[in-house]
Amino acid sequence: MTTYPTGDPTGGSPGAGLLTVDPDDVALRLSEVRRRIASAGGDSGRIRIVAMTKGFGPDAVRAAMAAGVPDVGENYADELLAKHSEVAEGESSTDDDDDGGRRWHFLGRIQRNTVKRLAPLVHLWQTVDRTAAAEEIARRAPGARVLVQVNVSGEPQKNGCELADTPELVAGLRSLELDVVGLMAMGPAGPPDDARFAYRQLAAMADRLALPERSMGMTDDLEVAVEEGTTMVRVGRALFGSRSVPTDLRR
Ligand SMILES: *Cc1c(COP(=O)(O)O)cnc(C)c1O
Question: Does the CB atom of residue 107 touch ligand 1 within 6 A?
């Protein structure tokens, strides 16, 4: 049996320390997310939806896939590895590389010891903000696809490189032969519109560096992100419902 790093506030359903989801609810909520994207003027066929499954078990990964979302984001290496193996176990794929068509995005702290285990599984590393972390990725997964996380929130405690340092970091990652496809940002805490300036700055920097992908926007501010040109929204609660209080604070 797999153990997860979080407790189960609902009191111990078998085989999972994480919350469970109803696939029909996820499908309904996905239509609502697509409606929100469209009503903000976005093309919901073009903007990629990354299902953030932290706090939820492997059934959330399956439900997202069944509803038509193959992109799954994880914040913790252990959760990614555990869900990956549980989901793979339940499938009879003949092709090991295919992974059921899923694409795993990693959005956690990039640490030397976990990069090695994650390297064969991760489709897109979204939280690269230092050369040191990138060197390990380049060593374990040559040519890996990465986003540079930029701290555009103005909050010094947030992760991400400084906006002004972005061109130099991108150049450094390219010299490691990583495939830098875009930039990623977390919006500041507070009302959704507070994220607008941050997202606008991220998009402007991506334009300047001719990077196609902009990963910005979450459950509460996805309209603002769409208006500011996101290509990838990362949604958790909007697809799976609310997490318990402790997991909400996890990042
Ligand atoms: C949890 C998380 C999200 C999604 O948050 P919701 O508010 O549940 O949509 C997006 N990005 C990152 C990096 C996260 O950790």
Answer: yes
Q: How many CA atoms lie within 13 A of 234 on its CB side?
A: 23
3 state SS for 122-133: EEEEEEECCHHH
Q: What is the pLDDT of residue 8?
A: 39
Distances (CA, A) of 126 to 24, 72, 116, 134: 29, 12, 16, 11
User: Which ligand 1 atom minimizes the distance to the CA of 237?
Assistant: 8
Least Cα distance to 127 among 171, 164, 173, 86 occurs for 173
Q: How far does residue 200's CA lie from ligand 1's centre (Å)?
A: 19
pLDDT of residue 11: 37
CB of 54 sitting under 6 A from ligand 1: yes
Residue owning the nearest CA to atom 5 of ligand 1 = 236
pTM above 0.85, yes or no: yes
Q: Please list, residue by residue across 102-128, b when 16 or more beta carbons sit within 10 angstroms of its beta carbon and e when fewer do.
A: bbbbbbbebeeebbeebbebbbbbbbb
Pocket probe mutation, ligand 1, options 49, 107, 148, 223, max atoms within 8 Å of Cβ: 107
Task: Give the C-alpha separation, 92 to 155, whole Å.
Answer: 46
Regions of the chain with pLDDT less than 70: 1-16, 92-98, 245-251
Nearest CA to ligand 1 atom 11: 234
Mutation probe of ligand 1 site: the residue of 54, 218, 224, 249 with most atoms within 8 A of C-beta: 218
Alpha helices (runs of H) in 102-235, residue ranges in sequence order: 112-118, 131-140, 166-175, 196-208, 222-227
Cβ count near 130 (within 10 Å): 16
